[in-house]
Design a protein that fits this description.
Layout: H1 2-25, E1 27-30, E2 36-43, E3 46-54, E4 84-93, E5 96-104, E6 109-119, E7 122-128, E8 135-143, H2 148-151, H3 153-177, H4 181-201
Antiparallel strand pairs: 1-2, 1-8, 2-3, 3-4, 4-5, 5-6, 6-7, 7-8
Helix pairs in contact: 3-4
């Protein structure tokens, strides 16, 4: 009985530690070129990521960019903003998440991915084929910080757009799942305030 209690206690501690570790990674991250923001989120006790902002979201005709190089023809019309770029990264140990799937839309290629959290606000993302030392891509990403809002007007505008996108996504979810008109009105008022801030940042 004592051994069973110890095992259960160990499992509880392990689960708690795991969730804390994932919490250190989730959030909004700028890619190395600073032209894309990927939001990392917990996904079935793993970490995945989707594109939530692009510096140049439209093509030369003014239409939203799509995943033209995807080897799956049925996915070539999906918009780049909102696309899942990373999936199923599992915490291995310490500051490392491995065995994830990393999709590179610039090449239309999918690799096995490994994330190393260098510090609280920077990470290294590597894509590889087969063994981890057969590297195909490597880049350093930096975390979105609230301080960015007061450092640079262009960055402020960009970050407000990211926040606006996330708020709209949350409202869409509420409309789909619940009929909360009062809450919806409050959320829309908050977004209107952010739009006013965005105008002032121009």
């Amino acid at each position: 009985m004592k051994n069973i209690i110890l095992i259960l206690l160990f499992l509880v501690i392990s689960i708690f530690t795991f969730s804390q570790t994932n919490a250190d990674l989730v959030g909004q991250w700028y890619n190395a070129e600073d032209d894309i923001v990927v939001t990392l989120f917990e996904d079935r006790q793993m970490v995945s990521g989707k594109v939530t902002w692009m510096k140049y979201p439209n093509d030369e005709n003014g239409n939203p960019k799509t995943d033209l190089l995807n080897p799956d023809e049925s996915l070539r019309n999906r918009e780049s903003v909102g696309m899942i770029m990373l999936s199923s990264f599992t915490h291995i140990a310490g500051n490392v998440w491995d065995n994830g799937r990393l999709y590179d839309p610039k090449k239309g290629k999918t690799y096995t991915g490994i994330i190393t959290l260098k510090d609280a606000n920077s990470l290294n993302l590597r894509g590889y084929v087969g063994l981890s030392f057969i590297e195909r891509s490597s880049s350093t990403w930096t975390r979105y910080l609230d301080e960015d809002l007061v450092r640079d007007p262009i960055t402020k505008k960009r970050n407000l757009l990211i926040q606006l996108t996330e708020d709209l996504n949350n409202i869409i979810k509420k409309i789909e799942n619940e009929n909360l008109l009062i809450q919806l009105r409050e959320d829309l008022n908050k977004i209107m305030k952010k739009i006013e801030e965005l105008k002032k940042a121009e």
